[in-house]
């Protein structure tokens, strides 16, 4: 097969690149910034059934990667790469494979033990065949080294960029809570709803922004819980929104009590908007949200989450203190050009080998 052009990169991901999740947002922005550097990026849309890919999806993926020229650098999103251990082994000599790991597949909340173990085993095998691994946080990089055996020198930490937005302090009445994230178990919206149910006596409203299609049964259970608590006039599910800048600017407090995050771009976006944050200690969240900008509580601790909400809903001076901390923390966050430069450097290193 004809060899690849040295300025060309192939970037593979499952399904539609416009899928409204943090991982796809990262992929979109990275691709766009790499193109600005002069890299010719060819996108490869794989079947959308990953990571639960059937044999047909795997065969289509084999054909797509098989058509890529020899020696090409190919970035494969971890949602697919983690279960493509056999294909990675088959193509490892011909292609320069780079895994992009947002977080290990086995750490998704709500998995049955069988699926968790299978994901762990397949991702370990697949990563052995990657010539480089891009991660979106230092936490994930450390995890891949300690739990998956990936050598540190193969790992590139490319922190997501963040867009700066004008600071617009609100402190309206009622105070407006904002949460952004797909309606899946890992995001722990159930914990937030239960905590808010204990604070009916306080003045607040909440907007839940996120896609419901990834786990419709779970999403329906969240809406049912809101109805049971008689909060439908205070908690609003909007679905996914293309432009979140206005949402951040109109909010007073950002809250997302995730059970795990490989990074958590929405936390960085909230900091950039100067919002005080309520989150958990889970995964990489403490790397993004310093104590000066938010209140972090243990995951799945409804009592602690309720108390953190109570503090920020009733203590305006504490809100102002964390607003200032958020703006200070945001000034230290990378932009998307920084992210692309990290990845471009790794790609250039691979081309020289």
List the helices and strands and how they pair.
Blueprint: E1 8-14, H1 22-36, E2 40-46, H2 55-66, E3 73-77, H3 78-81, H4 85-91, E4 96-101, H5 113-127, E5 132-135, H6 138-148, E6 155-157, E7 175-180, H7 189-197, E8 204-209, H8 216-228, E9 235-239, H9 245-250, E10 253-255, H10 265-272, E11 277-280, H11 285-288, E12 294-297, H12 302-314, H13 316-330, H14 336-352
Parallel strand pairs: 1-2, 1-3, 3-4, 4-5, 5-6, 7-8, 7-10, 8-9, 10-11, 11-12
Helix pairs in contact: 1-14, 4-5, 7-12, 10-13
What does this structure look like?
This protein has 353 residues and is of the alpha/beta class. It has two domains: 8-161 and 335-352, Glycogen Phosphorylase B (Rossmann fold, 3-Layer(aba) Sandwich), CATH 3.40.50.2000; 175-330, 3-Layer(aba) Sandwich (Rossmann fold). Helices cover 42% and strands 17% of the residues. The chain has 14 helices and twelve strands. A six-stranded parallel β-sheet has the order 2-1-3-4-5-6, sandwiched between helices. Helix 1 crosses helix 14 (336-352), helix 4 packs parallel to helix 5 and helix 10 crosses helix 13. The chain is globular. The model has no long low-confidence stretch (mean pLDDT 94).
């Amino acid at each position: 097969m004809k060899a690849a052009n040295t300025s060309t990169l192939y970037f593979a991901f499952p399904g539609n690149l416009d899928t409204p999740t943090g991982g796809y947002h990262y992929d979109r922005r990275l691709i766009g910034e790499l193109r600005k550097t002069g890299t010719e990026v060819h996108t490869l849309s794989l079947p959308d059934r990953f990571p639960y890919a059937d044999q047909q999806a795997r065969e289509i993926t084999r054909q797509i990667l098989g058509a890529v020229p020899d020696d090409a650098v190919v970035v494969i999103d971890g949602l697919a790469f983690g279960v493509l251990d056999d294909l990675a082994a088959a193509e490892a000599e011909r292609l320069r494979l780079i895994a992009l790991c947002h977080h290990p597949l086995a750490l998704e909340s709500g998995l049955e033990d069988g699926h968790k173990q299978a994901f762990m085993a397949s991702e370990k095998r697949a990563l052995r065949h990657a010539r480089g691994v891009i991660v979106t946080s230092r936490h994930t990089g450390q995890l891949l080294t300690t739990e998956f055996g990936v050598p540190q020198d193969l790992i590139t930490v490319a922190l997501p960029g963040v867009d700066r937005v004008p600071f617009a302090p609100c402190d309206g009445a009622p105070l407006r809570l904002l949460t952004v994230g797909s309606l899946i178990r890992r995001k722990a919206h159930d914990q937030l709803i239960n905590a808010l149910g204990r604070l009916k006596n306080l003045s607040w409203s909440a907007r839940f922004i996120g896609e419901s299609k990834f786990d419709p049964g779970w999403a329906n259970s969240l809406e049912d819980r809101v109805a049971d608590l008689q909060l439908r006039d205070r908690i609003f599910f909007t679905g996914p929104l293309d432009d979140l800048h206005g949402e951040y600017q109109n909010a007073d407090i950002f809250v997302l009590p995730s059970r795990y995050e490989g990074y958590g771009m929405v936390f960085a976006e909230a900091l950039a908007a100067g919002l005080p944050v309520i989150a958990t200690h889970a995964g990489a969240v403490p790397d993004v949200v310093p104590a000066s900008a938010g209140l972090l509580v243990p995951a799945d601790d409804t009592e602690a989450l309720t108390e953190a909400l109570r503090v920020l809903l009733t203590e305006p001076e504490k809100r102002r203190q964390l607003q200032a901390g958020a703006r200070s923390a945001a000034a230290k966050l990378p932009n998307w050009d920084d992210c692309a430069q990290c990845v471009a450097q790794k790609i250039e290193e691979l081309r020289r080998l």
